[in-house]
Amino acid sequence: LDQWVQLARRINEVFQTDPTLAGIVVTSGTDTLEELAYFLHLTVRHARPVVVVGAMRRPGALGYDGAANLRQALRVAGDAGSPGRGVLVVFNDEINSAREVTKTDALHLQAFQSRNNGALGATARDRIIYYRRLERRHTATTEFDIAQISRLPRVEIVMAYQGASGDLVRAAVDRGADGIVIAGAGAGST
Fold first, then answer.
1. How far apart are CA 135 and CA 138, in angstroms?
2. What is the pLDDT of residues 123-151, one digit of tens each?
3. What is the 3-state secondary structure (H, E, C) of the chain?
4. What are the pLDDT tens digits along the chain (190 aa)?
5. Contacts of 101 (CB under 8 A, 6+ apart)
6. Cβ(93)–Cβ(113) under 8 Å?
7. Which of 50, 74, 56, 189 is nearest to 123 (CA)?
8. What's the rounded Cα separation, in Å, for the pair 116 and 76?
9. pLDDT value, residue 190
10. CB neighbours of 121 closer than 8 A, spacing ≥ 6?
C-alpha cells in the first residue's frame, strides 16, 4: 500500500509538470490489479487517463496476451476520447472503469469485467470506441487528496458468522488496526 501511495503521488506530479503528456499506462499483476486501479481512480487528481493493464498468460505461453493488452492500453491512453473517464482497465480488447471492474476468472483471457454495467468501451482495429460515461466522481473531481498522507490506515477484514466470538475483532484492535471491515453479514445486519 505504501507503493500505491507513492505511485499515485508520482502520477499526480508527472501530470502536473508535463502538460503535453496524453496519459499514463501502469502495468500490474492481475491478483491485485482491480484494487490498484480503483485506488488510483480515487487518488489521481487529473482528467488525463491512467490505464492499468496486465496479462493473464505468462510470456512464452501459447496465446500470451501481454503484448496485445499493452498495445491496446497505449492506444487508449493516447486517445482523444479517453480524458475525463477516470482510471481505465484494458484487457482483451475491452475498456472498463476502475470503479466497476472485477476479476471474474483466474485462468481465462476474459478475466476482467464490469458485470452490472458492462464495459465502458472497446479497442477496435482502427479506433477506440466508448459506449458510455461514468456519472460518479473520480480523478479530477475526487474528494480524496493524498498529498499530505504519509501512510494509509491499517484496516483489517473480519468475517462475521453465527456464533462468532469476537476474538478476531479484539485481536485486530490489540494489534493496532485503525479500522475493521466486518464481512459476511447479510444486508448490513451485523
1. 9
2. 998 899 999 988 777 777 778 888 888 78
3. CHHHHHHHHHHHHHHHHCCCCCCEEEECCCCCHHHHHHHHHHHCCCCCCEEEECCCCCCCCCCCCHHHHHHHHHHHHHCCCCCCCCCEEEECCEEEECCCCEECCCCCCCCEECCCCCCCEEECCCCEEECCCCCCCCHHHCCCCCCCCCCCCCEEEEECCCCCCCHHHHHHHHCCCCEEEEECCHHHCC
4. 889 999 999 999 999 999 999 999 999 999 999 999 999 999 999 999 999 999 999 998 888 999 999 999 999 999 999 999 999 999 999 999 999 999 988 888 888 889 888 899 999 988 999 999 887 777 777 788 888 887 889 999 998 888 888 899 999 999 999 999 988 766 666 6
5. 34, 37, 89, 112, 113, 114
6. no
7. 74
8. 22
9. 61
10. 94, 95, 128, 129, 130, 131
Single-letter amino acid, residue 132: R
